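Give me structure tokens for this 165-residue protein.
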Amino acid sequence: MTTRNGRAEERTETMIEHSIEINRPAEEVFAYLNQVDRHHEWQGSLVSTTVETDGPTRVGTRVVEHRNVPGGTRDFPYEITEQDPPRKVSFRGTAGLIRPVGTYTVDPTGELSSRMSSELDLQGHGIGKLFAPLALRQAAKQVSVDHEKFKELLESGVAAASNRR
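Here you go.
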């Protein structure tokens, strides 16, 4: 891309968008997605999760994810800002130099199949503004891998079997 003065300008993407088809009903996909304490099963960089609020996941639920990122492990606190089961859940980071903001949407594509779509942004705060574009590029590489793992666990029945514990 070029500007009016003829200099090259790099275009940066501010949002990661990804969708995946899953051969499971939307209700089952959302039920697994909604278990934030199990996200480590399918998110490769996630080490552990602490849910800070009691009860089921809902608007206002506060979570701290401990993730492996370049430079070591970091805590990423966030809260659920919107929830419309079995279709949609949104979240936003509440502290830190880089804060995630995102939405997962689950749409039925048939009686026994669905599409999970995600939108993710990483917003820099303070000096984090310098690192957010790099973190976003890194996350973009991981999202499709994580979604494939999510799909594999659901379609193989592992996720559903664990739900019955």
